[in-house]
């Protein structure tokens, strides 16, 4: 597996990787979870896929098998900022306005969204490695622009999965139930630090819960 990172100005350097990522998102978020979000027969793409966005993808044998989108909380494109801030401002249907206590607007904080891993990555070890490569890529991009923290909206168990992999994530809000897939989601935060540099040690493998195993083995989702 290899990690690639880019923004829209650089995506031409990586062939069809960006389009493959949009297709992977469509198959997971639309076809599997049933989310009512912008898409066609092949890809999912929304208002946050704009020149302010950055991407961290993982390739295996030249094919995209996972990825994530990220942007600074200072980002603004037209009437849109970043997803959690737009939710707080009441611009997004389905995400509560009180999902986080306060919408940050600072280059120190970045938001991560649309993380997905292909069903073709079907072992726990491979999915863990893929997710770690995705996150390390986002951390590298964020820290290059001065970020010290990354926030996201995710299933509550995902924060525990991140801690299991060595990223000290914590919940920063109350969970809510998504009307499309009836799953619970909650805002989380973690330091913009690679797993090898994380301040909290990784728990012993034997202590991993079955729920965490299932969450990594099946597609993790961050809105």
Task: Characterise the protein shown here.
The protein is an alpha+beta fold. It has a single domain, classed as Gcn5-related N-acetyltransferase (GNAT) (Aminopeptidase), CATH 3.40.630. The chain has five helices and eight strands. It has helices at 17-32, 83-88, 124-144, 156-165, 210-217, and strands at 2-7, 54-60, 63-72, 109-117, 149-154, 170-171, 176-177, 184-191. Strands 1, 2, 3, 4, 5, 6, 7 and 8 form an eight-stranded mixed beta sheet that branches. A hairpin with a 2-residue loop joins strand 2 (54-60) and strand 3. It is globular, with a radius of gyration of 16 Å. The model is unreliable at 199-219 (pLDDT under 50).
Distinctive features:
globular, Aminopeptidase, 223 residues, alpha+beta
Number of helices: 5
Which consecutive residue ranges, at least 5 long each, have pLDDT under 50?
Answer: 199-219
**CATH domain class name:** Alpha Beta
Just name the CATH architecture.
Answer: 3-Layer(aba) Sandwich
What is the total number of structural domains? 1
CATH fold-type name: Aminopeptidase
Please give the share of residues in helix.
25-40%
CATH homolog superfamily: Gcn5-related N-acetyltransferase (GNAT)
> What distance separates the N and C termini?
24 Å
Short description:
This protein has 223 residues and is of the alpha+beta class. The protein has helices spanning 17-32, 83-88, 124-144, 156-165, 210-217, and strands at 2-7, 54-60, 63-72, 109-117, 149-154, 170-171, 176-177, 184-191. It is globular, with a radius of gyration of 16 Å.
